[in-house]
Fold this protein.
Amino acid sequence: MKLTAETTLKGIAIAMGAIAALMAAIELQRALEEERVRVPATVVSDDPLRETLQRCRTLTPVALEADTECQAAWEENRRRFFGTSTTDPETD
């Protein structure tokens, strides 16, 4: 197979198109990551437990251990999720 000027130019054009598509995909990914970082997940609710849990999610594990309000909120959340009562003997 003989390389001609036409074949070489076609190869260069294909390579440039592939590079342009790759660069566009990288920029799209970068823009999506920036938007994900910029827009924090907010919970709009009148439920005070959700608001407390949202605050507790931002705490470090050490701070979470010391925060009794967060511990109580997580316990209440587990109770609601599993549908258990606080006097249920199986939860002990």
Observations:
- The chain has a mean pLDDT of 85.
- The two ends are 80 Å apart (CA to CA).
- Residues 1-39 form one domain.
